[in-house]
Hints:
Layout: H1 5-12, H2 20-35, H3 40-43, H4 55-67, H5 74-82, H6 102-109, H7 117-132, H8 137-140, H9 152-164, H10 171-179, H11 186-189, H12 195-202, H13 210-225, H14 230-233, H15 245-257, H16 264-272, H17 287-294, H18 302-317, H19 322-325, H20 337-349, H21 356-364, H22 371-375
Helix pairs in contact: 2-5, 7-10, 13-16, 18-21
Amino acid sequence: MPTLREHIDLLKVLPEELDRRYRSNVRRFLVHLEEQGQSWSQLVPAGSGAGARPAALEQAVNEGIRHHGLPIRTRTALNQAFGFRLRGDIKGAWALFSPDLQEHTDLLNDLSEEPDKAYRSSVKWFLVHLEEQGQSWSQLVPAGSGAGARPVALEQAVNEGIRHHGLQTNTRAAINQAFGFRLQGERVRLAPDLQEHKDLLKNLPEELAQAYGSNVKWFLAHLEEQGQSWSQLVPAGSGAGARPAALEQAVNEGIRHHGLQTNTRAAINQAFGFRLQGDIRRAPDLQEHKDLLNNFHEEPDPVYRSRVNRFLMHLEEQGQSWSQLVPAGSGPGTRPAALEQAVNEGIRHHGLPTNTRAAVNHAFGFELQSKAEKRG
């Protein structure tokens, strides 16, 4: 439930005839605003009535749907509840709203007719994405970049947009086709820049499998993207059998949050003789979480127990705890709302296994549901 007084008051004055599911979507959106440090009054000018289309509210709704897992019908729910005319990003398959900058509008107008409709749409969406990031085409593409060029800043923006911001995987191909560029994907081109990282790659064991060598290379490039280096994470003299804690954490976080290959850990262990372990072998730090695991009955199978263990560690990574999400006395058959949300977001955004929900339900007798189940 929202905690701001203005949000609580908004829920009280919703139309009685508003569908129960729409009412739930409005409530979830208000909670989302508070999570983002925003409020309704910041986004909706005083006096905005039926037929209005508050720009800041529309942007917040669209970003919430696109990046934060809000249900697609949130927009419809707000329109229905307040008589607004908010529009979505998608008007048809991938025909998104147009960019605002004149240079971006001109780029689209000057596109040849050759790019097919899907490619044209992907270029359009990329330009919108740049504006959301406070960037523009002219900042990324040097003047005079023609067919065959490979603008470095543009390539990086495209790759990061695909990896972190939900851009279509064909965005790179679309831009290449539209402008004749030769942008490449990260795994094709990325090599580390730091000399210490280049030296590490030169000294890899000759017998190391090519795929593992590639994973080590990509990890070192990833460290540089994060502003880190191998020497910061690995104490001098760390040899075979070592398990550098900072390196292990960086590898696990890279796999979990930044799209590194799951065999990155094995590749580094093989290359350097380390004994890095995955998160699954760690235990939570908070005493209440340790107590939860210790008080398990024997029924949960090892896989489910492992999932609960991982979920509790995930909560700690997010600065949360079980007692914050589960009201005292919540027993079998209950469905703690904050816990359900944390599980769903963990699965959707943080790489938790999809059976985490089933594991928590099985272990505690809860009836947590997925978003799909709630929609049904």
